[in-house]
Specification:
The protein is mostly beta strands and 116 residues long. It has one domain. 0% of the residues lie in helices and 50% in strands. The chain has a 6-stranded parallel sheet with strand order 1-4-7-10-13-16, with no helix packed on it. The two termini are 25 Å apart.
């Protein structure tokens, strides 16, 4: 991880064998290693592991994306797409880090003001 530090306390973990159909809303941070078909709203940090998959809109404070997201991603802070990560959708954030081999198919909007 280059730029985003995930909080040491993870409030919610969705394991690699888990599949969620429907929206997820987490007041704290979320580690996602499974599949979600629905919108994801995280008040703090989101970390998607290798092999994870989201089909839906994502809203969070900061994100480290090592899996695949098909939908728009909005963060109030930093988004880091790691080398194994892929985003098919638009990104809105304050800062963006794209690692070598990261995949992005969408538009990027960056602002000095936190994205809403």
């Amino acid at each position: 991880m280059l730029g985003v530090k995930i909080e040491s306390k993870l409030d919610t973990i969705v394991g690699p064998e888990s599949e969620v159909k429907g929206d997820i809303s987490v007041r704290g941070s979320l580690r996602l290693d499974g599949r979600v078909e629905g919108n994801v709203s995280v008040m703090a940090s989101l970390y998607t592991g290798k092999g994870s998959f989201v089909k839906g809109e994502v809203h969070c404070q900061d994100a480290v994306i090592a899996g695949r997201i098909e939908g728009n991603v909005t963060a109030r802070g930093v988004i880091e797409v790691q080398g194994s990560g892929a985003v098919v959708g638009d990104i809105a954030c304050r800062n963006l880090i794209l690692d070598r081999n990261a995949f992005l198919d969408g538009r990027v909007t960056m602002s000095e003001e936190p994205a809403s």
